[in-house]
Amino acid sequence: MASSSLKSTPLSPSTPLASSKHLSQSQKSPLQSSSSEITSPHTPNATPSQNPTFTPARILTPDLCDILSNQIAPSDTDDPAFIPFLRCAQEQLAAYKSLLVQVQNDENAPALVQATHDSPQTNRHRKSLKQPKELVRITASSQEHVSRWREVNRRARNAYESLRCYYHLQHITDPQVRETTKVKVLRSDLKAFTELHKLGPQLVPYLQADKRIVGPIPGVEIGDIFFHRAELCLLGLHGPIQAGIGYAPGVFVEENEPIAASIVASGGYEDDRELEEDVLLYTGSGGKGRNDSHVSADQSLERGNLALERSMNYRIEVRVIRGMKLEPNSGRKLYVYDGLYRVVDCRRGNGQSGCLVYQFKLLRIQGQNQLGSKTIRIAIETKAKLAENIIPSGYVSPDISGGKEAIPVLLFNDVDKNNHPMYGPMMYEYLKSPEYPFSSKVSAMKGCQCRPTCSDKCPCKERNGGTFAYDNGILLHGRPIVYECGNGCHCAATCSNRVTQRGIRYQLEVFRSRDTHWGLRSLDPIQAGTFICEFSGDVVLRDMVKQGSEFQTVLIDPRKFPMRWHHWGNLSAVFPEWKPFESPVVEEQPEYFLDVSRRNNVACYISHSEYPNAFIQFVLYSHDDVKFPRMAVFAMENIPPLRDITLDYGCSTDLDEGDNSMEGE
């Protein structure tokens, strides 16, 4: 397998990569050598010359690719969940068109045709088909394609997180489920992965290639974080659930040799080392127990170890994921994608235990974004300094909330030197949560009588459609409105149905940005589905604005936010009978604006994005008037430390100037 056979191709779907053996026989480019992939999957490598009875239904031409692409073009009436797959199909047709042009220029190339259903070749059972012995690299031809792939991946991860919470909550609340599973502690993360993995390419299209994928995974960015290892497997970032080396077995490779595609470096072996920032010394697999870092037996050059050695020989890049402990004394790990490395050295020698171990030296490929693990370490070090009352360089204020928030809100500016106290966020009065002065229009919420925590018969649970909205602080699925327990409820302040009212739980910081002027990020990793913050400002009735008033025009309109909560927790891909939400439909629209020109809070500095990582969920707890819901910000995906938190603010209206945020103020 020569390294030249692993050329990147501009395909969004999976693209076969020919091996050196194939190339030496045909002397064609990787695209030409894999042209048989265009035929029906039931007729591998079949051509009219090889099969005299083969009758094509239609010759696949570049013009036909254009026609098919136009026919499947997404429209406004399509289901939003289906649009990414239509776009992926269009990208695949575009790739086929490009390939066909190359093949047509080759006089010796066989015709590419679509097989008929009555062909004897199509009657073969799928299980009898052999996987092509070719590695696969997936590339995106534009930033737009990257964003589309990322949206596909995010919906898969959303489904995983929602299903994991669903199984966990089902196990702890349903005695029949506990009796069926026969376990005290359910591995809901593995159960959710098992169910979603059955969908395979239906959920994530490129998973049809699975273990054969080398190089980057479309839609996965350097620095992306994962709270569960099963998520790595779900996206194809790393194959095995437990093993540290993911590789394509020899049956998938022309040379019948395993090729490593990824490793998880989490310090599982005592000989693991990080020599420099971009250099990793990774210990091979084998020779130790599952939960022991001590090697008690010699390692052999087989399976994953052999795959890494072969990757070094063929100069095939390896994806590196680092496992990092969230807390020093905690067994829970956070996984972060650090990008592509190459194995540059392989040695076998005595380890610290005296046994023979394989050690692989990996060098990070240049030109990639900063290490995700480095960013996390910077955030950890910053928090440690702040805990000791040491203000790191660039921080203007240790708390712009003035002690009003449970956790201080930092202000960071390393862009310009204007750090006057009356500059930027410091010039506004900080308001933790909105105040509703219209007592005649807003009624208090009737509380539950639960003690000390809410029971299955809690009226607040019934308001949410018969299920509680949260599981360990994670929103189970989006709803028109979430009803939390309020001041009138008798349950404790630690009740699981009190989440947003507790305030922020992450170390947030407003920061100066060259792109958005001001933005919001966190020093902590934010888990998908968790509460981040709430929008606050002076409440202004809509009819007062229509009639003209003295209020300034920096207004946030709750109606403008797209209903992205529809996507959070949508399990229709797993359970076809699943309904988007079971809580009562709310027909009334919010009847207010938030004027943030004089008083506001941390949420007002969240930047706008068409592909946001957070969404707005309406919440009620201090009153029950659906015309005045609180605008709570929840994470749409796992957000790494120091990454911008973004929202889709929707279209602008005649009632305000510019967008719906203060990022440009």
UniProtKB/TrEMBL annotation:
Any one GO CC term of the record: nucleus
Ranges of compositional bias, category Polar residues: 37-54
UniProt-listed SUPFAM superfamilies: PUA domain-like, SET domain
Domain called SET: residue spans: 506-650
The organism's place on the tree of life at top rank: Eukaryota
Location in the cell: Chromosome; Nucleus
Keyword Nucleus (UniProt): yes
Occurrences of domain YDG (ranges): 215-364
InterPro entries, A to Z: H3K9_HMTase_SUVAR3-9, Pre-SET_dom, PUA-like_sf, SET_dom, SET_dom_sf, SRA-YDG_sf, SRA_YDG
Extent of Low complexity compositional bias: 1-36
Entry GO MF terms: double-stranded DNA binding; histone methyltransferase activity; zinc ion binding
Protein name per its UniProtKB record: Histone-lysine N-methyltransferase
Organism: Rhynchospora pubera
